[in-house]
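Notes to self after the call with IL:
- keep both proteins in one doc
- input above output, always
- annotate only the second one for now

Protein 1:
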Amino acid sequence: MEATDDASSKTATIVTIENMKFNPATITLNKGEKVTFINKDIVAHNATETKNSWASPMLANGQSWTFAPEKTSNYYCTVHVVMKGKIIVK
């Protein structure tokens, strides 16, 4: 399950979900650039902005989700709240 936007040929920044962590936990993007979350963990996870302005679907092992964040935000996994990350948008 991967959401993509064919209008942009830019490569997305990859955030791997593995061992109950987002890796890297903090990324910096320019406005319009994309991030792809790829779950390589044995359990399902999601990535949800702390104020719920965006959220991925639940991602099972091997699934990914891509989107272009519009502003700097902190996020976490709603299933495993100790998993946290940050996207900085310039």
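Protein 2 (the one to annotate):
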Amino acid sequence: MILKSSRKLSVKRMQKNSSQISEKYKDALVAKTANLQNISFAWHLMNSEDYERQVKAKGDMKTFDFIHMIQMIYYVDNLADTIKFYHSLLKNNGIVVISNRPANCGSDTLWKAYKKELWVDSITDRGSSEQVITCLKSLGLKYEEYAIPDAFDISECFNPNSQIGEHLLNFITSKDHFYQSFTPEIRAGMLDVLRTKCSTEKEGGVFYNINLSCIFVDA
């Protein structure tokens, strides 16, 4: 079972993008993978809370061997309730895998510094891996955490004439137009935080910290 992002952030755009990506995934990968062609799939293109409501309304508590929640817990309304519900859908010896950003990674650091300007209409709390672990402990669930260090080169972000740099900044801030979305003072502050607190300078480049935490939760 694959869980999608849930909070209603830019809903129409998210639904359109999710549908397009899902169709490409089904056509390009699943349909053309030989050992999957005889396996039937049930695709639920909806957010987490809607799926939970649907399951409870129908009383159809289908169980799973494996559930992964990749980069989606940032958007749920209630972290503890969400984890508890999906954990209840595991078969014996099943596993839930939760992956998200740890505290003090690049995106978390930028978010904390410019929370007011970023994600204004969507996320009120980023929900780091530390918060997930605190939640798991409170629920009495057994888990193992694995750190996945990673980074990518954002040197082009600091060249105001670079189209690649602007695309990277759009991606990092989740804004369509970085230079139009913020005042010159805010832009300068964000770029400073990106360089000095979110990244490491090495080999002549600036590498943005995108470390990931992968948490395996037993049934």
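Annotation: The first helix runs from residue 11 to 30. Residues 28 and 104 are 36 Å apart (CA to CA).
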